[in-house]
Design a protein that fits this description.
2 copies of one chain form a homodimer. With 316 residues, chain A is of the alpha/beta class. Chain A folds into 2 domains: 2-109 and 297-313, Nucleotidyltransferase, domain 5, CATH 3.30.420; 122-291, Nucleotidyltransferase, domain 5, CATH 3.30.420. Chain A has helices at residues 39-55, 92-97, 109-120, 185-197, 213-221, 225-249, 265-278, 296-313; strands spanning 2-9, 13-20, 25-32, 60-67, 71-72, 77-79, 89-90, 104-107, 129-134, 138-144, 147-148, 253-257, 288-291. In chain A, strand 9 and strand 10 form a beta hairpin. In chain A, helix 3 crosses helix 8, helix 5 packs across helix 6 and helix 6 (225-249) packs across helix 7 (265-278). The mean pLDDT of chain A is 95. The interface between A and B is large, with 41 and 41 residues.
């Protein structure tokens, strides 16, 4: 059976899988990213594990796809990733080529997720769409005419760092008012904490020892007015930003993925409402707002594996 | 000599030209758009004029490119263009095909301008750039990996209708705070009129019978503080918007064109300053902000002619 290798490098764990052309994970594995202070040791261990998995099988490797924070598609590198222990520019593609005589592609996790949706998920058959990952931060992958927008330098698709409120919340990037400070699993918690400070009414949220996006969703699902208001505000910031984004790339669909997207209608409904509200009439009622259908626990390796499959098979 | 036909349809006048592969206009003509209440009569007259120009020559037509307001590349139509006398959907491509046995492409004026810059202007050799036309409104054409972003429906690239101020100025599109209400030849006049109302100091602008973007530029060039402040504010709104746009498509350059772009450094300098100020550090000091080098009076037909050349020659 022909398979690609999909590797997702995270700050804590790195997971990998052998993915067949139908997007089924055949073998999975993981290693602890932090245990390897030298990236070459990390790659060597990964290569060893993958080769071991191939010993007793009839798998035929077609290529390797890697999703990594600050992964650069053009250069095959990881560049200055704040959440990884390795500093500077890591020539990941070259390092893998010391172990595999196969084509290897690197991109960031959101772009990999977009390709995963295109090959194996809800964007199958679409040529123009956007994937928005609502996790700790907000990542995005833009697909135009069947191809990911990498931009001039390979770093395109930073929707999380478009500014929705000049002089708004301080962002990890050191600027103010970035979308991801509002619309992400951490952003909605910031909203909750802000609102709770001066809230005069009674809310289930006041009884929680710790606020998380999951807990806010649970309270909203019990009809808690403040929790619902927090989702409404989050949807307004995200919907506003998406309306502006639609005016640029006019996608068929926008696909939400990740922690906050698990809230389902709680986040989709207000986002859709405000997106339509702020959208140019030319685009109104045309853009589908969808939730990813790729299984969340495998999405990262499926996306990375899809990157390899897409390149192996050329334009699909 | 091989030539394409470039046609630019405007609300008042329609200009056309025969364009060789080097981007030189060989023959030019124009007709009054408003004189033709039926678009088929309009196309018949255009076809007649073009065929007449070909009678005494050795020109060989390769294809026809049309730039038109609300021109749809996928359908070859003009759809609900507010500034044209023809209502509804005009099947322009089909109408031309009744007169010419040649490939015909239609797009909007800003996309045509972008292709013109790519083939004949300052974007020669670039694969990722944005053209922003600062005229009565603000138009834009996005090029990614050497191809124009048309989007799912053919209407992508409406940067002028991204919102930079929620609850800002009323726009012709019926919404509020669109970029083009600030950054355009009419937008800067609105800013001037607003500022003049409550201005306590003395300004050359107070002595003008009529305010235009040209007059504001003239006053600014004479060192008028208010006029300079008006350019600074216009540049802030445009630069803010461009910083957000760069985070999405990460272009090599942004090229300004049209009436307001003629102000040169007066508009480029503040725009660049604020673009860098609002930009994610990953993109800082990477994106060139340029003024178009295509001759303004021929830019529209050169862009339309370039659309035909690009399609005839395939990926360049």
């Amino acid at each position: 059976m022909k398979v690609s290798v999909g590797i997702d490098i995270g700050g804590t764990n790195t997971v990998w899988g052998l993915i067949n052309e139908q997007g089924q994970v055949q073998v999975e594995g993981s290693i602890n990213t932090r245990e390897y202070s030298k990236p070459s040791d990390f790659v060597a261990k990964l290569a060893l594990d993958i080769k071991n998995a191939l010993l007793d099988s009839t798998f035929e490797l077609v290529g390797i796809g890697v999703g990594a924070p600050n992964g650069n598609y053009f250069k095959g590198t990881i560049e200055y990733a704040p959440n990884l222990v390795w500093e500077g520019i890591i020539p990941l593609q070259k390092m893998f080529q010391a172990h595999f005589n196969l084509p290897i592609w690197v991109t960031n996790d959101a772009n990999a997720a977009a390709i995963g949706e295109m090959l194996f998920g809800v964007a199958k058959g679409m040529k123009d769409f956007i994937v928005v990952t609502l996790g700790t931060g907000l990542g995005s992958g833009f697909v135009v005419n069947g191809e990911v927008i990498y931009g001039h330098d390979g770093f395109a698709g930073e929707l999380g760092h478009t500014i929705v409120e000049r002089n708004g919340r301080t962002c990890g990037c050191s600027r103010k008012g970035c979308l991801e400070t509002y619309a992400s699993a951490t952003g909605i918690v910031r909203t909750a904490k802000e609102r709770l400070e001066n809230y005069q009414g009674k809310s289930l949220l006041q009884e929680q020892a710790k606020i998380s996006s999951k807990i806010i969703a649970d309270c909203a699902n019990q009809g808690d007015a403040l929790a619902l208001e927090i989702f409404d505000y989050t949807g307004e910031q995200l919907g506003f930003s998406l309306a502006n984004t639609v005016a640029i790339s006019s996608p068929e669909a926008i696909i939400l993925f990740g922690g906050l997207a698990n809230a389902g209608a709680l986040i989709v409904d207000p986002t859709q409402h405000y997106m339509e509200h702020y959208m140019l009439n030319l685009f109104q009622n045309k853009v589908k707002l969808l939730i990813s259908t790729v299984p969340q626990h495998q999405a990262a390796i499926l996306g990375a594996g899809a990157l390899a499959w897409k390149n192996v098979n050329g334009a699909l």
